[in-house]
Amino acid sequence: MLQKRIDDQPTLSRQMVREAQDILHRHLKDVGLKQTAQRDTILRTFLETRDHLSTDELHRLVQRKDAGIGYTTVYRTLKLLAECGLASEVAFHDGIARYEHQYNRRSHHHMVCTSCGSSVEFFSQEVGQLEQEIGRKYHYLTTRHTFQIYGICEDCRKKNQASRTI
Amino acid sequence: MLQKRIDDQPTLSRQMVREAQDILHRHLKDVGLKQTAQRDTILRTFLETRDHLSTDELHRLVQRKDAGIGYTTVYRTLKLLAECGLASEVAFHDGIARYEHQYNRRSHHHMVCTSCGSSVEFFSQEVGQLEQEIGRKYHYLTTRHTFQIYGICEDCRKKNQASRTI
DNA sequence: GTCATACTGAAAATGAATTTCATTTTCAAC
DNA sequence: GTTGAAAATGAAATTCATTTTCAGTATGAC
Question: Using CA atoms, how far apart are residues B142 and B148, in angstroms rounded to an integer?
């Protein structure tokens, strides 16, 4: 169940983690919420992974650092991260909400293997242009779009072929 | 909550309804299932609307024709219709699965208003080409894609502006 | 340090999707 | 037309991710 990410640095620098934390802290202040150790831990854990995480998966990772942090707090913190632009939800259409880093990332889209659930990211400026164009045409003020491609990855096709010849 | 459809005829001709019914009946035979009055009623009701229906909405429409038909049967029949290509699921990202006619329709995409939930359909051949191109590049055998644009429609912007000036 | 306010997390609630199961219906073979 | 195995039906129960509640705890402005 690999969720390949094909751009940016393998791990975020200490500098970037600090910047992300500042963004969160400013957002908390702006909306009258409080800074907590749990929220910081969750943010740091989130930034450390390169994958597309469900709330449940992130919760499991967070628990390795602080077993006392509950699912609910992870859930609420992911919403906060999305609010301040550090995370964004990606729907892979399998009934589970996933989040990925948003801070400092190029706009991209996903191609998902419907057999094993793995995904690759790809870039396409055409899609963004299309959003603008269609919005203008039908007088919508567009805010975002989703574009996903579904199919079967090479590995799964090979496996499938192998099992058939047995 | 209009779900505008911008192509094909306003209502399906008797001829097309019959053809669709034939497709369903053939599919049932192919997979060893049985023809029933309920399935026919559900298909006809589905074809009569031009909207993107949730299972619940279709169930309500179906009940006007035959109050004895249950939610479960509608749910299962929609899956059957999707299997034989008469319907396809569209995810508007609000947590509810919707279905639309697929038979004899041009490939299209949706732009959804996040304020009132209405949607318009648009056509873009570029998106299908992109699916092919990206699939080739990363060695996926692509099967389908989803592309949705989200934004605020003209009506909602006007309403919003009006309420602000009061 | 005080105290109002927000946070936390376990548990409960929610709600759409799906499954179960007893009963009824279909349809192919006779 | 009857029969009977297989499938269909629909009410109810279940599942499962998400969201809310609430009683106890921590934060941070003063």
Answer: 18
- Provide, as residue numbers in chain B, all residues whose Cβ is less than 8 Å from the Cβ of A125: none
Q: With contact defined as beta carbons under 8 Å apart, do A4 and A121 qualify?
A: yes
Tens digit of each residue's pLDDT (9 = 90 or more) over A35-86: 999 999 999 999 998 779 999 999 999 999 999 999 999 999 999 999 999 9
Q: Which of B135, B152, B154 is facing A149, going by the closest CB pair?
A: B135
Whether B47 has a pLDDT exceeding 60, the answer reads yes
Separation in Å: D23 C1' and A78 CA: 24
Say whether B149 and A135 touch across the interface (CB within 8 A): yes
Residues 66-125 of B with CB under 8 A from A: 91, 93, 111, 113-114, 120, 122, 124
Rounded Cα distance between A118 and B5, Å, is 34
User: pLDDT tens-digit profile of A84-111?
Assistant: 999 999 988 888 999 999 877 888 999 9
Half-sphere exposure of A4 (CA within 13 A, CB side): 12
The DSSP symbol for A66 reads -
Q: CA A128 to CA B130: how far, in whole Å?
A: 13
pTM of the model: 0.82
